Amino acid sequence: xxxxxxxxxxxxxxxxxxxxxxxxxxxxxxxxxxxxxxxxxxxxxxxxxxxxxxxxxxxxxxxxxxxxxxxxxxxxxxxxxxxxxxxxxxxxxxxxxxxxxxxxxxxxxxxxxxxxxxxxxxxxxxxxxxxxxxxxxxxxxxxxxxxxxxxxxxxxxxxxxxxxxxxxxxxxxxxxxxxxxxxxxxxxxxxxxxxxxxxxxxxxxxxxxxxxxxxxxxxxxxxxxxxxxxxxxxxxxxxxxxxxxxxxxxxxxxxxxxxxxxxxxxxxxxxxxxxxxxxxxxxxxxxxxxxxxxxxxxxxxxxxxxxxxxxxxxxxxxxxxxxxxxxxxxxxxxxxxxxxxxxxxxxxxxxxxxxxxxxxxxxxxxxxxxxxxxxxxxxxxxxxxxxxxxxxxxxxxxxxxxxxxxxxxxxxxxxxxxxxxxxxxxxxxxxxxxxxxxxxxxxxxxxxxxxxxxxxxxxxxxxxxxxxxxxxxxxxxxxxxxxxxxxxxxxxxxxxxxxxxxxx
Length: 504
What we know:
Largest sheet: 16 strands, antiparallel, barrel
Number of helices: 6
Structural class: mainly beta
CATH class: Mainly Beta
Radius of gyration: 24 Å
Strand content: 35-45%
């Protein structure tokens, strides 16, 4: 027994290869296969397969196993009210599946924007390169009475900015910059429930929009870049030319908030969900005195604190299944939340944001009140999808300034998958208030186009390439300085990236 315990400890650092579980076997009657996003939610068209116990070396923690697509923090056990078969092994009563999945991406960019030469004495070149890692530790367990439970997290790499490397001992600066990189927590949640009653997820994790969409209706699945959703290519293009990911699915401003989420059992392809979040922030640091840094702030004398929500609730429903020869995913989610109240004056608020003459902003914000809906249809490898969001929202989950314009935005696209190859094209358009200071004067219009794809060269090894064009416009707003002004009222950028991803 002692040897078995020691061996288990040594193995923890290596367990996590997709489709592999130690000391457990798949149930005789496996659930139906699940289709999901390439981006790591639950895998794509993963068929049930027997779990094989691979040879391993407890003295070094090495595990020899079959390669496969990585599993993110959300998997086929914790992202559905009724567990599904998929890349993460289904625990049987009295067992626990432990996994440590991950991926490393290396990529090269060529990118241009309209502000590249706008700072006197400075300019930027078009070529750049980047790499990063992500780790996905987690456990999925089942009690003897059938209770499902577990925990999952996502660990990311923080990248430091470039700095002057002169001084007494000149160097390239790369070594110093790398020592400033850190690992940080991006997701951490627990869940429990049963297939008959559904599950409750609690902690720093995804809400209903991400869990229902899985990146499919928002067209994030044909490349590891996730198209417009905070992609590394958009960051490399720079110039403040990338629109915020207002569609929320897979956005850090959606999943990096503390919340409870209930996911119902599946009823002939239909399921529903409920969500509650007291605020977006951790409350581990109590406030000595009320201030902007308080997680549970209710009233503030700082004008822009009013963009922060409190007491968010959401409800939604989804259908996922086959309708004749077509695989259909359709969902709708409604979200409502209060916000931090501003206790200052309208004059003080306009001065704080540098609002120009004629701005009607009073310093107040409207409650969050918006709907998100999406549809994706797949036939013979071709997926056509679209997502629409509308209501009182401004940017990624922020409250809309009172008197400002509501948001209306859509993303649509088509992708084709055959064997190891997936290619696609996506287009987004966003009409929103944009700059708070410009309320009553102008509003923002943004659009972008993405063309790209990926090729699975080997299990766990993917090559990818993307091209993005993006454009933002708001009269009277300088995108270069982030303030009201007559210059740089429209910015645009474009670029391409090619890279590789190794996952396990």
